[in-house]
TrEMBL record, chains A, B, C, D:
This is TetR/AcrR family transcriptional regulator. InterPro entries: DNA-bd_HTH_TetR-type_CS, Homeodomain-like_sf, HTH-type_TetR-like_transc_reg, HTH_TetR, Tet_transcr_reg_TetR-rel_C_sf. It comes from Cohnella cellulosilytica. It holds the Pfam family TetR_N. SUPFAM superfamilies: Homeodomain-like (SSF46689), Tetracyclin repressor-like, C-terminal domain (SSF48498). Keywords: DNA-binding. Residues 18-78 form the HTH tetR-type domain. Residues 41-60 bind DNA. It comes from the Bacteria.
Length: 217, 217, 217, 217
DNA sequence: TATGAATGAGTATTCATTCAT
DNA sequence: TATGAATGAATACTCATTCAT
């Protein structure tokens, strides 16, 4: 029976099968990261993996499933990396710092994967001809920041945010992080530590309650 | 003789020729904005322009030239819009505010064009198989902000920035602006005025010299 | 503008366009007749037409449209051939004779086309995985015979038919005609005239009102 | 050693081996009957049989052998069913009646198998690119009817048939039977008994010696 | 200038077949 | 015996580009 038709493919998937899929996904990531989404044909991916095109079709229902796997794995890895680090913090201020720090660290440690996902997401936007953002994932990404902002505001350490100004702040933080990825692509040797420090500073300052902030100095 | 083979096509280009190219470029922008880069084939563009595919090939060396034109025109329009508004300001603080305000206004007024360029840039990144950002343009974009930051620092109204921390700040501002475009795509009815106000606040606070800032309040 | 997207392609189709389509359809018919439906790939058809595969895609939306054209043209040609010949007859007996005669003549004169359609219809049966006969066409084919039978019965020259026995007779006549096509494929030099005479005899006898029939002898 | 390479595989075939092949053939029949020849890939057949694709390749030289088995088994089953029933009759008239009756009964009782064979035959016609009917089988099919007709003619109960008019009659009877199968596919609930009665009537009338026939009434 | 027509390389996908385990 | 894995040829279709008119 073909893998594709298995009812419960998650559980029935053999070790070898998982490994093969993982290898192909890995190769797809590298291919996209190196030649871009548009050039990343199944043929190109297969060539780089030193396998025949058919192998990919054997292990994945279609191209969409393969690419979907990249995104899914990314979000899982990202969440597993970020969440515990934030939860280990006590104050919102620290949480925000760690959010930024761990995101940049994650990006720096998974450059290719992150870049591949950025490519994928940017193409998915208009996949079927109509603007259709990967809304679930996308919006899920903002939740942790918005939570941190809300909490910090309630505890009185952050300045006041309305619902929509909180969203702008959340978006701006996310954009800063995603933008860092692009900068990393342009300049692979950028000083990650310093970039991190600067971002932390920027958003520490701009979220801080003004009076309190001064006292802290 | 085809236009393509003319030695000096820039200068010899007739009025009609220019108009035709402009029309095609306009159509290409709309097509990309509506159906996305991947679906924006020459055939699709031609269909929307009610012309034959051959016409595009006649007026443009190849697809790359057509798409390049979109980007080029965009930067020119952007610069013509932004530059005078900034230059009309006296203080760096005002310049930064106006930079953000005029950028968001420009984006809001030229949604399709801006979105098309974003689509293009994201695809151009790996056009030839190697990462190749539209470096000239891209870097040029940061110059005005970096100039503002430097000036503000020298005048003592902004906090201290090293060369690299100034770049991080410049990037973060740009990313916030580009991110606004994406938000505008996701939620076309977002309150532009409010978003603008929030961004101005965020970057006003985070660039401000701490002591001075308080006095200003 | 591509032909495919024209709203009213029937009318706007140029002479050259029509000719090209006709040529391709002709070639497709020959290909199917010679190598069978399964082997009749677009590539094979193109090869026999001495054109590139792309030409077919240019003139036809997809393979389905091309093959559909074969069937459609066939039914039109068939009807144009059969109908006037039947209508020229006065008695149902003559109409039945002419129906058989003209069908066999039509088949003999359009062997390839008829065989191609038989191939196509037999494949269409299970096109989407479920039994789905080309019902409209198929059922339409029985109508003229059923009409003749009914008329002959009402005039008292044919024996009595219930609704379902009339259908069986109609089907049997059609099957005899389609079976002749197969025989023609197996034995291209079969004596058409004789075959026709025999079929006419068989169905003349088997529809005839028994008493009346004898008088006629 | 693979079965395929065994010199005398017919005789050496074990019981288990036979059973396995039978099971696969059975499954192939159902698959073809349900999804049609074109969709009946080895993968599909294997899936329905709950075995791996490789098993089929292990037990059958290639797809052709598997499909050939379907046809062969069909003819054997058909012959075993029809022959004794005809032989049990005394008069040609009865033999003809029983031939039609038993054929329709056989079809009705083995719908899937019969339909699968029809699908196969229609595709096999042009299997290698050239028209190649399953001639042996096919021609063998006409023999019993031709024998009946000859006998009936010699006994003076059937009208006169030349060699070729006998063939037309034989073909027409076969076509009527095969056509019934198609009707059964289109309308599974068709009244088999009634259809049978009608066909018997039609061919009783059309073979009958005219004078004799009347007397019989 | 503009067009319709044609091209051919490239895309994802399917599938019969092979083979090591 | 049976299997999962792999292969590579074949298929329909897309599209940037060329070219004669």
């Amino acid at each position: 029976m073909s893998i594709k038709n298995r009812p419960n493919n998650q559980k029935e998937m053999s070790f070898i099968e998982k490994a093969r899929r993982a290898q192909i996904v890995e190769c797809a990531i590298e291919t996209i990261a190196e030649v871009g989404y548009t050039q990343a044909s199944l043929g190109e991916i297969a060539k780089r993996a030193n396998i025949s095109k058919g192998v990919i079709s054997y292990h994945f229902e279609n191209k969409e499933e393969l690419l979907g796997q990249i995104t899914t794995e990314y979000y899982i890895a990202w969440q597993s990396y970020i969440a515990p680090r934030i939860e280990a913090q006590k104050s919102p201020k620290e949480m925000l710092r760690v959010y930024i720090e761990s995101n940049l660290a994650f990006v720096a440690e998974n450059r290719k994967h992150v870049f591949a996902v950025i490519e994928l997401v940017s193409k998915t936007i208009t996949a079927n001809g109509k603007l259709q953002f990967a809304a679930e994932h996308d919006e899920a990404v903002f939740v942790p920041i918005e939570n941190i902002l809300t909490q910090g505001m309630q505890e009185g350490v952050f300045r006041e945010f309305t619902k929509s100004s909180a969203r702008v702040m959340a978006l701006t933080i996310r954009n800063a992080i995603d933008g860092f990825t692009m900068e990393l692509m342009r300049k692979p040797h950028v000083d990650v530590q310093e970039y991190t420090r600067e971002l932390v500073t920027i958003f520490d300052i701009s979220t801080r309650k003004q009076g309190v902030a001064l006292e802290g100095r």
